[in-house]
Specification:
The chain has 2 domains: about 300 residues, YVTN repeat-like/Quinoprotein amine dehydrogenase (Methylamine Dehydrogenase, Chain H); about 100 residues, Orthogonal Bundle (Cytochrome Bc1 Complex, Chain D, domain 2). The protein is mainly β. The chain is about 15% helix and about 40% strand. The strands form 7 sheets. The protein has a 5-stranded mixed sheet with strand order 1-29-28-27-26, with no helix packed on it. Strands 2-3-4-5 form a 4-stranded antiparallel sheet, with no helix packed on it. It is globular, with a radius of gyration of 20 Å.
Length: about 425
């Protein structure tokens, strides 16, 4: 029987891998904002950014060869189906393009809120999920086959070989959906109540990645087969290769980890950047495509432990100063905009002076919704110093602490400026 890796072994292996010197080659033409979505194309790749654009890339060398427009909001999801590139944005629009020319073939209003995930089926159908819990299945010609509404925001989708569609999200549960005539019918696969699900993928079984960094494997009946603390920082992305025998995960600390399946068994970890990695996909040759908070696109070659990176986004797009730098890790889960966000956490717009758990459109944990916390500078300092598990027991916030008082002060000062609204107090 194969022995599962123990926590001490895995942390020691991770430390050894992270000690490797960085191998980074600068190229050109980044996104002017975080790269939320990446996907492999025949002979290249495509990426979607918060600058409202898609970019097509050649890989040798790593160079942007085309910029595709058409979205009027940040691009939040990507998928490549036979002959089509699908992209969703923060307003719920879904575009289908020709992969060679980038010409828009279809422009659909798919969801009433941000498109959070897209998943192509082997037969060419495409599934889309929304931050509002909406779920839809489409034909290649844009005809909606079925629609359903989940009980919580959806953040991840994956098709099984038998044609079932799996969806997970903010309530920590996973539902198995089947297309029955013109309806989607769902049955619980993993009960709700755990940490939010940010990644789903099929290898030899279903892999589930949660915001707290835990990677779990499940058998066909929803029974846990294995689980490991894959990341210490908040987890952000999961992908499985075409053969189903390897996976990659990424986190808010800028680390990517390669796994052997079944297992999962850790093979190699790499600190590819000091900023969050938001998206990941396997390339046909075994390389790993990564999209970063810093606007860069990277290709990690695990066999050579080499990282090729596009140039950094302009400094003004990333934000400057110590507080802005520290906020980049928060930005994995939280936006600063008033509009609804595709991220796992609620928007920070107007945060200071707001009662915790009070945004009507967000699915808060009962613990946070029932608390009497008002987000002041002092309250944020306690949260960051103690961690959410002590400050708000029972909440679904990932375990994040900031022990340095100076860093906490810099981050809170940045939040006072960045989240302020007209008439909004900043206590």
């Amino acid at each position: 029987m194969r022995r599962r890796p123990r926590g001490g072994f895995w942390l020691a292996a991770l430390a050894a891998c992270l000690a490797l010197p960085p191998l980074v080659q600068a190229e050109e033409t980044p996104h002017a904002g975080p790269v939320r979505a990446v996907a492999a194309l025949l002979g290249g790749a495509v990426t979607g950014g918060f600058d409202y654009t898609l970019k097509r890339w050649s890989l040798d060398p790593l160079t942007a060869t085309a910029t595709w427009r058409g979205h009027f909001a940040p691009v939040t999801a990507l998928a490549v189906a036979p002959g089509t590139v699908w992209s969703g944005d923060q307003t719920g629009r879904l575009l289908a393009r020709d992969p060679a020319s980038g010409r828009v073939r279809l422009d659909l209003k798919a969801h009433g809120d941000a498109v959070t995930a897209l998943a192509p089926a082997p037969d060419g159908r495409i599934a889309s999920a929304g931050r509002d819990g909406g779920l839809a299945v489409w034909t290649q010609k844009g005809r909606r086959l079925a629609v359903a509404k989940a009980g919580a925001s959806l953040l991840a989708l994956a098709w099984a070989e038998d044609g079932a569609l799996f969806a997970g999200g903010g309530d920590g549960g996973v539902t198995r959906w089947r297309l029955d005539g013109g309806a989607l019918r769902g049955t619980p696969f993993i009960p709700a109540g755990g940490m939010p699900v940010v990644g789903l993928a099929f290898g030899t079984g279903l892999l589930v990645l949660r915001t707290n960094g835990r990677l779990e494997a499940y058998g066909p009946n929803g029974r846990p087969a294995a689980g490991i603390q894959a990341h210490e920082a908040a987890a952000t992305a999961l992908a499985v290769d075409a053969l189903g025998d390897a996976a990659v995960t990424a986190d808010a600390g800028g680390t990517a980890v390669l796994w052997r399946l079944p297992g999962p068994v850790p093979l190699r970890a790499r600190a590819v950047t000091g900023d969050p990695v938001w998206s990941a996909a396997f390339l046909p040759d075994g390389g790993v495509l990564l999209g970063g908070m810093d606007g860069r696109v990277r290709v990690w070659r695990p066999e050579a432990d080499a990282v090729l990176a596009s140039a950094a986004m302009p400094e003004e797009a990333a934000g400057t100063g110590e507080g802005a730098r520290l906020f980049r890790r928060c930005a994995v889960c939280h936006d600063l905009e008033r509009a609804a966000s595709p991220k796992p956490g609620p928007s920070f717009h107007g945060l200071l002076g707001r009662h915790a758990g009070s945004l009507p459109a967000y699915d808060y944990s009962p613990a946070l919704r029932g608390s009497r916390i008002v987000w002041t500078g002092a309250a944020l300092d306690r949260l960051l110093a103690e961690g959410p598990e002590r400050f708000v027991p029972g909440s679904r916030m990932p375990l994040q602490r900031m022990g340095d008082a100076g860093e906490r002060a810099a981050l809170i000062a940045y939040l006072r400026r960045a989240t302020a609204t007209d008439g909004n107090p900043t206590p």
